[in-house]
Amino acid sequence: MKALQEGLPRAVKVVAGVVLATATAASAQTPATISVTCPVSVLNNTTYNAEVKINVGSGAPCQPPGQPAMMCGLGAYNLQLTYNTARVNLIPASPDLPLEGGTAAGFGSVPAPPNCSANCQQPVTDPQTFLSGSVPVSAFNTNNGFGVPVGQASVLKATFQAVGLGSASVGVTADPLQVVDTTGAPFSVTTIGACSTSVSQYACLGDVSQNGFVSVAEAQRAVKNVNKAVNPSDLTLNANADGDGNGFVSAAEGQRVVKNTNKVDCIP
User: Residue 236: left if φ>0, alpha if ψ -120 to 50, beta else—which one?
Assistant: First the structure.
């Protein structure tokens, strides 16, 4: 990582997971936003990806050393990835790459070379924190230019395994949080997003017969059970309509069952 950083035409480095601006630069005026995307629903014991994107708009007015005035793009970030460990586990992408980079120019994955020291891969993180639900992540722009990326940039992908029924949230915390341009000047972050995934135990919510779709009769019976505790005499129906396994069918679950009526591509 040190060699990569020293080859950059800017003064932004990541040392021990912390973004450092090593040159004096005017503060970037363009506000940045951070969003997290993930699937709406998954089955329990399956894996899925969450993606973090940083949007810096058209960039920040800057004048890199020896360069004309221009608009500088995203240079580096330092954030805390958070998630509910009762619902999901964060899984390393590979032994030499705990987390994957995004698709934005300069923020892709950089696997650790053999026998490297700590923090030589990108993104930089600490796998020892994966069980905590709060994971530090940093990365710097490996491009040889100052002007990219701008707009919405995909910078991080994390793989999760669903381990508990219910709503699984993935987000980014504001402390610590740093987003800087390619000269090291900070962006002000105005919006920090999160995403939520419903972890269900059935491939088709409300499909009692497991024939791939919900019949009208199954939907009607599920709606009758909304906000009612699981009925021992109708355990199979309740279990199939009770997606989060909390012992009763919620109004939202009842609505999802109705939407599945006579549909082959049903909603988990």
Answer: alpha
Question: Average pLDDT of 156-185?
Answer: 89
pLDDT tens digit string along 96-140?
788 999 999 899 988 766 655 555 668 999 999 999 999 999 999
Residue 198's nearest CA partner among 92, 41, 86, 29 is: 41
Amino acid at 159: T
Report yes or no: 47 and 168 within 8 Å, Cβ to Cβ.
Answer: no
pTM of the full structure: 0.71
Domain boundary among 200, 225, 243: 200
**Sign of the torsion angle spanned by Cα atoms 204, 206, 210, 213:** negative
Residues 95, 156, single domain; the answer is yes
Max avg pLDDT among 25-29, 154-158, 211-215: 154-158
Indicate whether 268 belongs to any domain: no
Full domain range(s) for residue 173: 11-200
Report the alpha-carbon distance of residue 87 to residue 90 in Å, rounded.
10
